[in-house]
């Protein structure tokens, strides 16, 4: 029996306040289903995939679970046709990253869909609150994938102070129950984890990538500077974010000699690899929390262990604080 529950659980219709990240173009239907069935919130990304492929994923997920899940969109690029189809699909929530879009939030609410807005700084949080986002994900710069520069330890309490009754979920650098306990102590109502769930048995990325996550140190997860040479452009105002990735020859050359990367040759190669479930040889988006991941586990076990560890960490902290 999982025993950590906060008001965001009731809002999202979940049992435990753990959200699994959307992983852009990487296919994660099996993982999302496992997370939902274990009581958390599973997510599906939409980047780069065609609408027929996405519709197949949505149908497959609904075939595996009848629990709530989120469909994610970003601005790299934002695709109107896919967004409209998402509204018609009516997931419990739409999550969004890399910019705050008040017009899209209003359309989701008109369709009766909750809005989970991932934010990287206080300015984005203020815009999201103004636009009526239902949940804010305060994402620190430690995170895998795109993020800003503010660390989770500063961003979470800063956004909790701004958010009033709107629930805040912490993301970036959280891979175990100690991180979850810390997030709750900072005022968050839950956590969103990406890197930890990448190294799950259900995630469809290559074993090589999972093994690298298990073996890597935090300093191996670097900002993939100049990745605009090979990633799609942002296509909504106010967008920003630089991806964090494990180092590869491509990441190193992008950081040090971007002019040597020929987009015409590289983009098709990387896209094909990513859509084929690989991509670890080019841009394995991964956060600093890789240093805290020591094993590849089923999603249910990740959730169970994280909750147990968080309970123990909160008790230890309370004991330590007693005179
Ligand atoms: C491989 C990968 C792909 C990601 N793609 C997305 C995405 O498409 N949309 C999104 O909102 N966040 C995306 N993120 C960021 C996550 O939502 C989350 O903020 C991050 O994983 C949290 O940090 P952590 O990796 O330390 O847990 C991605 C993260 C990773 C690792």
Structure notes:
The protein is an alpha/beta fold. It has helices at 7-12, 29-37, 51-64, 80-89, 102-110, 122-130, 152-163, 177-185, 195-198, 207-215, 249-256, 263-275, 299-321, and strands at residues 18-20, 42-44, 69-74, 93-97, 114-119, 135-139, 145-147, 168-171, 190-193, 221-223, 242-246. Helix 3 (51-64) links the parallel strand 2 (42-44) and strand 3 (69-74). Helix 3 runs parallel beside helix 4 (80-89) and helix 6 (122-130) runs parallel beside helix 7 (152-163). The model has no long low-confidence stretch (mean pLDDT 97). Bound molecules: flavin mononucleotide (FMN).
Query: Count the helices. How many?
Result: 13
Give the low-pLDDT segments. Answer: none
Distance between the termini: 32 Å
CATH superfamily of the largest domain: Aldolase class I
* Count of extended strands: 11
Residues in β-strands, percent: 5-15%
The molecules bound to the chains, other than polymers, are: flavin mononucleotide
CATH topology description of the largest domain = TIM Barrel
How does the overall form come out from the CA principal axes? globular
Question: Largest sheet, order of strands side by side?
Answer: 1-9-8-6-5-4-3-2
Kindly provide the name of the CATH class of the largest domain: Alpha Beta
Topology order in helix (H) and strand (E) letters: HEHEHEHEHEHEEHEHEHHEEHHH
Largest sheet composition: 8 strands, parallel
User: How would you classify the helix and strand content by structural class?
Assistant: alpha/beta
Radius of gyration: 18 Å
Overall helicity: 40-55%
CATH architecture of the largest domain: Alpha-Beta Barrel
> What's the pLDDT, averaged over the residues?
97
Number of domains: 2
């Amino acid at each position: 029996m999982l025993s950590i529950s906060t008001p965001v659980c009731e809002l999202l219709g979940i049992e435990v306040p753990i959200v699994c990240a959307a992983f852009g173009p990487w296919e994660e239907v099996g993982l999302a289903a496992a997370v939902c069935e274990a009581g958390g919130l599973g997510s599906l990304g939409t980047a780069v995939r065609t609408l027929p492929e996405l519709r197949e994923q949505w149908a497959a997920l609904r075939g595996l679970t009848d629990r709530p899940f989120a469909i994610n969109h970003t601005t790299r690029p934002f695709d109107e046709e896919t967004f409209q189809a998402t509204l018609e699909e009516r997931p419990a929530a739409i999550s969004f990253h890399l910019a705050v879009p008040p017009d899209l939030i209003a359309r989701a609410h008109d369709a009766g869909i909750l809005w989970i807005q991932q934010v990287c700084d206080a300015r984005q949080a203020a815009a999201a609150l103004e636009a009526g986002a239902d949940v804010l994900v305060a994402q620190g710069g430690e995170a895998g994938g795109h993020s800003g520069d503010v660390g989770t330890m500063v961003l979470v309490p800063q956004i909790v102070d701004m958010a009033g009754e709107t629930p805040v979920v912490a993301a970036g650098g959280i891979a175990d129950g100690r991180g979850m306990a810390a997030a709750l102590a900072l005022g968050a109502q839950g956590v969103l984890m990406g890197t930890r769930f990448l190294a799950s048995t259900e995630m469809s990325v290559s074993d090589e990538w999972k093994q690298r996550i298990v073996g890597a140190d935090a300093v191996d997860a670097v900002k993939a500077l100049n990745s605009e040479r090979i990633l799609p452009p942002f296509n909504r105002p106010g967008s920003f974010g630089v991806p964090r990735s494990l180092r590869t020859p491509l990441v190193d050359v992008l950081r040090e000699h971007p002019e040597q990367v020929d987009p015409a040759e590289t983009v098709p190669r990387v896209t094909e690899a990513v859509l084929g479930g690989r991509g670890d040889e080019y841009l394995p988006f991964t956060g600093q929390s890789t240093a805290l991941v020591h094993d590849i586990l089923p999603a249910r076990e990740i959730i169970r262990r994280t909750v147990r560890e968080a309970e123990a960490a909160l008790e230890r902290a309370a004991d330590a604080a007693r005179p």
